[in-house]
Design a protein that fits this description.
GO terms for molecular function: DNA binding. By secondary structure, the chain is mostly helical. It is 62% helix and 0% strand. It is built from five helices and no strands. The protein starts with a helix and ends in an 8-residue tail after the last helix. The relative contact order is 0.20.
């Protein structure tokens, strides 16, 4: 799994949980523009950031990095 896949999954979960990007940025101690760069794949996400986001979303890192597949 590359950085782009990671941040795509994080963004999917953030939007699904109806959490604003600025709130995630504040929780991480980042300005919104820095978090935007992470979510857009312009900056690599760190392991520490991944763990903090998973905790903030109430999930494990394994759950966070996967976008649920659509079932018919």
């Amino acid at each position: 799994m590359d950085n782009k896949e990671l941040v795509t999954a994080i963004k999917w979960h953030r939007e699904n949980l109806e959490i604003k990007a600025k709130d995630v940025a504040a929780m991480l101690g980042h300005v919104p523009s820095k978090y935007s760069k992470i979510e857009n794949g312009e900056q690599v996400i760190t392991g520490v950031e991944l763990v903090k986001i998973a905790d903030y979303f109430g999930m494990t890192v394994d759950e966070l990095v996967k976008v649920p597949s659509r079932r018919k």
